[in-house]
Amino acid sequence: MSDLSATLPLSPPSQLSVVTEKRLIRQLAITVALAFLLLFLVLPLIVVFVEAFKRGLAGYFAAFQEEDALSAIGLTLTVAAIAVPLNLVFGLTASWAIAKFEFKGKSLLITLIDLPFSVSPVVSGLIYLLLFGAQGLWGKWLMAQGIQIAFALPGIVLATIFVTFPFVARQLIPLMQEQGTAEEEAALTLGASGWRTFFTVTLPNIKWGLLYGVLLCNARAMGEFGAVSVVSGHIRGLTNTIPLHVEILYNEYNFVAAFAVASLLACLALITLALKSFLEWRHGADLAGGTVN
Fold first, then answer.
1. Tell me, which fold does domain 64-288 have in CATH?
2. Is the pLDDT of residue 103 over 60?
3. Radius of gyration from C-alpha coordinates of the chain
4. Which helix (H) or strand (E) segment is 257 a member of?
5. DSSP state of 142
6. Are 113 and 217 in contact (CB under 8 A)?
7. 261: which DSSP letter?
8. How far apart are the C-alpha atoms of 166 and 114, rounded to whole Å?
């Protein structure tokens, strides 16, 4: 009997997974997960749109006819149009340097890229205020030169860039590290210039990861509240972005208008989620095929 048991193949540890749990436990885990998503994700989105259309389509679209709302939307789009391309350039440059080269201070650079993830957005906004505010380190000199950073568009852009610059870089660094440098070295050996190698070899290989990072960066830039709230000064019609305008409307008990404007951010979140899922599917399919097209 002992000899027979010794010859029987043993089940590998990898086959012992959660699927061996009792059906009741699996159903309980699924129920808890679905209930959590329903309570903290689906229901809040439903409430936003229900409250936004509480007075019908006329009341909904009336919220966007106010000058302050139009100004907030325009400012948000302007800030995103400036911050996202700059973060795109920084993310490409930083990820290229980190993934393709070895240099002193590389670990420090990676740590600095992760810094906005560990610093509160309010703190980062306060830092810019202490630097460029009227009583800040450089504020008086800048004001004497007729340059206003805090409580103006430049301060909002700087704060937005700070809180969003890790998204592109953090998406590209592991992707470039995994790909290595073999293809670039081959292109250079065949006589391609550095720029030609980048545009014909490197960029096509990372395009899906790049789009994914830009998508997340844009969503965060348009929805940022904490850092922008500190450096903007909450000047209606001038320095209020969409999230700040929603806060003002809600504090004034103009709930329908507040939820109507907030529905724009909700729609942005849904569109971002759909595009994110598509890019993950496409990117995953490329990886399964052995290449990233």
1. MetI-like fold (1.10.3720)
2. yes
3. 25
4. helix 255-288
5. H
6. no
7. H
8. 6
Global pTM exceeds 0.85: no
Which of 225, 24, 1 is closest to 125 using CA atoms? 225
What is the rounded distance in angstroms from the CA atom of residue 135 to the CA atom of residue 143? 10
Per-residue pLDDT tens for 196-239? 888 888 888 888 889 889 999 999 999 999 999 999 988 888 99
- For residue 177, the tally of other CB atoms under 10 A from its CB is 13
Determine the Cα–Cα distance for residues 36 and 20; give it in Å rounded to an integer: 24
Q: What percent of the chain is predicted at pLDDT more than 70?
A: 89
The DSSP element (H or E) to which 111 belongs, if any, is helix 106-113
Token duo for residue 49: 């749109």
- State the DSSP code for 19: G
- The tokens of 41 are what? 């994700």
Helix, strand, coil in percent for the chain, rounding step 5: 80, 0, 20
CA 89 – CA 57 distance, rounded (Å)? 41
Contact 158, 138 (CB under 8 A): no
Closest CA to 227 of 115, 118, 125, 127: 125
